[in-house]
User: Fold this.
Amino acid sequence: MGKRIEYIDFIKGICIFIVVWGHSIQNLGDGNDFWTNPVHEFICSFHMPIFMLVSGFFFSKSIGKPLMQNIIRRFKQLILPCFGWSLVLVAINIGYMLYAGIIPSPAGTLKSLFMETFTRFWFLRSVFICFTLAIVSMKIFKKDTAAFIISLLLFLALPDNGRLHLDKFMYPFFWMGYFIHKYIDVIMKHRGKLLIASLILFAILLPFYQKEDYIYITGMSMYDYLEGKFVCYPPWERLPIICYRYLIGFAGSLFIFLLLQRVYRPHFRVIEKVGTYTLGIYTIHILIEGNVLSRFNLLDTGFFMFNFIITPVISILLILLCMGIIKLLEMTRFSSLLFLGKTKTVIMLLAICLIHVSCIKKVNLYQGDKDDGKQDNSGNNNSPQRQDIIVDTDFFYPFGNESQNYTAEIIINTRNTLPEEKAIKTVIPALKYNKSWLLMLTQDDCKQAAFSWTWAAINGKPLTAGYYYQLGHLQYEDLPPDIYYLGETLGSTDGSGNEVRFSFTTTLSPEWEWMDAKTQIYKGQTQEYYRFFMKSGLTWGDVKEMLNYGIGISIHDVNIDNEEITVNNLLRHYDIALNIIKEKLSGRGCKMLAKPSGIAEYITAGQIHSSIQTMTSNDGETICPAKTENDLKKVILNRGFYSIEDLKKEIDKQLQLSPEKRMAINVGVHGTDASWADLLLWINNNYGKKGTDNVWIPNQEEYYEYNFYRTHGTTAVTKIDEHKLRLTVHLPSEEDFYYPSVTVNLSGIKKEDITSLDAGSTVTGLSYSNYENGIMLNIDCRKYLTEHAENFVKRYEANPTDASAKADALYFVNMLKDSDKKEELKKRIK
Assistant:
């Protein structure tokens, strides 16, 4: 399944509006006057070429896949909707004929259905033909340049019969999209110059656009085969038109593509959403305009009113209507397939991919491996210099070496005489730190926003209103121009005054190569910010850094086409994905599955696969933590995709209940932005460390492990003498457990009575405080917690002026149990 590139959806959203606008001018006018309408000429000079460019932009992902599988899939996605809507159109025409007393013939009906399928929605047919010709050419010639040139020449040599002139005109633009994608980094490097050059060329060519230049008026061939005879045309009649049409199409589509890419900002969500429905909007609006709007003539309202007020407004309303119809069609599998070319989930014209190129370089901040620029032979720094690097963290918690089945012993020495042993009760509470309600967040689709928005907001890192960044940009201090900070980290406390930052789960896409993509570093470059545009998703370096801070991970989509989704295929891909995760994350496994919307087979396979222990879905089970008595293994936890306001209402609803009746709030989200950062800040200020401090926000892996320990773990107290008590906590674990940490409530002892706590070597983190009629102890048995904290201290020492690095160092050092090592680390943080 493909991953979206948001600026492509933005471009498609703008372009489908332009297409609908052009058709509105055509259908709401008077007869054939639209041919000479300058606004219509402007639109038609580039609107279909740029759509074909976008279709070709996605082509490279299909290269190398089985040929027939490729063609059949595209046939379903592109031709089947043409057939479906042609059925509707033919049915309407039959209704008109019957109303007029005419009985349609079966042969005529079938012929009409065939013609409508392959001519009415000509662009979808053209995408299919261009794709098929291109993929077959690549199969034969192997080299893209040879495949393009030879196939184009052979295609142009055919006559225009069967409306092939439309496809012949579109074909080079399909390849144009492919080559733009292939050389995207070079194009971005010179985008400003290309933008100006294409604008100038387009502006020069546009005034010469005439009625004869429309592809619908003048064909593409020097000859035709008509009524059994070849009819030839003088080269000087058509060749200049063909060349002009190609040239203005190239200039206009390149200019619009680069312009929209440049102005794109992540908050254009509405336009992006429109861009995900272009296939449906294209087909549905043609039917509505051809059968409804064409009955009206609004041309006499005046040139400006007609072209710039009436038709644009009608186009927007028509797009909204189309989207509503699409939503209805998506409600059933049959209508979604027949009219939208979709199978079990939403898929657009082609899969999305992204290319990163150039050299590989490992980053290690300990070694001072940060280069602000390269030096020439004279030793001068020629900044800025671009570097394309594969980023890695300067350290990574050794999850693969984590121990299992911990037994923690803590000796409690008291000032006063201890009560009788049987009077001292121990319990592991329903929620860690004795919090009264549970909130969890899972971010789907391996989104880059999980790093530069969600993780960054929680951990006091820079935020950016209009861009995205990666770990390498943080490491090299090459950040977007609009960064800002919340001014604090977000979390609650452990009940004894230590900060516990919020956590969340990010899904991964281990089978997609873009997780290995290079990060473009261009420190000092302020002319363009392409490196800060949203990429396909997280890189492994981003994921490793988030794991260092306690973020959880989950699998989600696997790289399999919808038509091939079976439980057995999913099980095979789960093995592949989980093995890649362990390899890329140095032994850190994954035990969680977040179900992709609408695909039940993912859950069925997850229940079978031995490594998947916890799952979440929007149709799962809503749990009440205080009443949960089982270990939740293989239980599918319910999650909701809330709006922010609805989530706040749900929080308020649960807090109206007594703690023992509160249901867990499990949130699913795709992209996050400033509004979600503000939401996390709001939770921090109202229910976290700056508010009532009653919420626990772990990732689902951590909550699952905690509940497992609570269910299967054991606690025992042994009174050694009148002033000494041994607490023994056994935490049995399973595969891929990484959070050996619990809260234990101990009755009959107050904090003021304790003279000292002596924890065994198994315990690495420890804090305690009064709780009800006793104390609470937060016990952490992570094997390498001390080394991990020291690594954050080293990071601070490498950047002593970085306030965030200092806050991180203190945060992790404060997790440790009291010891000489902890005091030594604290002294290093000045």
Notes: The chain has 26 helices and 26 strands. The chain has a mean pLDDT of 88. The first strand starts at residue 223 and ends at 226. The radius of gyration is 32 Å.
